[in-house]
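Interim report, section 4.2 (structural modelling).
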Amino acid sequence: MRIIVDAFGGDNAPVEILKGTADAVSEYGITALVCGDEARIRAVLSGNGISQAGMDFLNAPDVMPVEAEPTEILKSYKNSSIAAGMKALAGGLGDAFVTAGSTGAAVVGASLIVKRIKGVKRPALGPILPNSAGNYMLIDIGANAECRPEMLLQFGVMGSAYMKHIMGVENPRVGLVNIGAEETKGLELQIQAYHLMKNNPAINFVGNVEGRDLPLGACDVAVTDGFTGNIILKHTEGMGKFLSGELKSMFLAGFSSKIGALLLKKSIAAFRKKMDYTEYGGTPLMGISKPVIKAHGSSNAKAFKNAIRQAKNICENDVNDKIAQALFIAKENA
Amino acid sequence: MRIIVDAFGGDNAPVEILKGTADAVSEYGITALVCGDEARIRAVLSGNGISQAGMDFLNAPDVMPVEAEPTEILKSYKNSSIAAGMKALAGGLGDAFVTAGSTGAAVVGASLIVKRIKGVKRPALGPILPNSAGNYMLIDIGANAECRPEMLLQFGVMGSAYMKHIMGVENPRVGLVNIGAEETKGLELQIQAYHLMKNNPAINFVGNVEGRDLPLGACDVAVTDGFTGNIILKHTEGMGKFLSGELKSMFLAGFSSKIGALLLKKSIAAFRKKMDYTEYGGTPLMGISKPVIKAHGSSNAKAFKNAIRQAKNICENDVNDKIAQALFIAKENA
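Predicted structure of the assembly:
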């Protein structure tokens, strides 16, 4: 299996990206096609003592900055490392593509260069977030700020396939993010989506889920428009930081507390690991004809390596074929 | 000062409501007009040894259930304790009204019986939530699922008046909840609201705030539509519960951890107090011509007492007059 990687995406590129890629090659038995300025990549590899075993290179001289308009991936930045990776994936030079670059550019590039699975209305970003039951997928979190009801149904179908075949959840419970349990709650979007989802055998729909229910494990796939999803995703991060900060000040509150903190050290490490997004890899871009993984912009080597592992799992489990099949069933029953 | 209370609203009515009211009378030097089935109220007072000093009663035989359609406050439940309280406030029988009953009925009743402040497009619910800087107001959280840009500007103006005059924040920073920092981000609602808010001297607008920024203290007033606000409010509750649960299992993880937990006891109590919504009282219904406070449905005596204290503060500081004045300035500069 060959995974294509964007060497120049994210805050810690290229060093951490290349380290993570080298680790993935040695741990997971894959090969890598590394996209970016080849001379610089080679210099960074040798300068940092990173092995280039199992790596091929695809020279792409430019770097697309995160603040660039996403559509520029087709224009001013068509020779960037991220554009090269998308084209390599579309052209069959590898099995999946992993980038820690701009989310917007990844969505646009994947949609327009790699293309969608047949029948998919819009691709969606589905990160895995921690909750009291373990974790859940929140989909979409920003690929589509505005959505139509049919899109939400498809998000549920795609998310279910991922949770089943990658996360090992037998019959994933799909919830619709809303402001009340009754099917009459919410805006027109939620009311119509509820109706579509309720009657479709392609998903195990458990009804509306409120903001309170998400961290408490009410569903395995939480379906929402990209605006609301983006707020929830970032609020999860912010609450985690806020509450960790409160914990920290608790531990510094007095001598006895410091002893307490020492004794709790092991448990706290386990807690941090649970809250650490890098454990889950990156965010899969659901609905694209070939696997595209958006690693977190602040990915270090470990996070990037985990994103590559995730890409490998998606390939090995034919998740995209399974999504296409489930979408067909969903459409037949719509 | 006389505070009108709904004796039959909330999960713990009437006992906890009456206890909280009695405590407020004795601690804050107010009198209370208690609405509901008078015979039952008197029986509960004497049966529980609760003092009725400082209390008058307004007999209202019915109780409006939370699941009833909010507009029924004007029809089937026009003789309910909550409807009686609204009418008493409108008729000048007291200075403010506090209810732990249905949020929907409180919004409809306040809007149609007590009426809005002149110029207010729509009233809004603005709870105070904890964050790393202390706390902030999130407005709206469900009075209006769908909003227009002018409404968001008014929410910012009303929230600022509250944070300044009740919470003591000198020049409250108003943020617009959005999915990115740039003023071009978001849906049409956010883009237009940004423009209105940016140019209005009635508020100290600090721009867009993302989900991550809210718990980290980026603003004192976070303005949003009621759909998004409701999700954030409940997600705050859910994340608090989830993370407290994780803390608890940390403490039970082993013998050494139990010792750690004992030593940390005091700090944990302080943490819980910070996360406890009952400390802040209830949620003020902003934009109504007289103060209406929606206490949490699960209020105990302490929470209800705090909601009464909050009502008293709003009256003493003439917050409603200040809101009317600020809205006038905002309109002149729109």
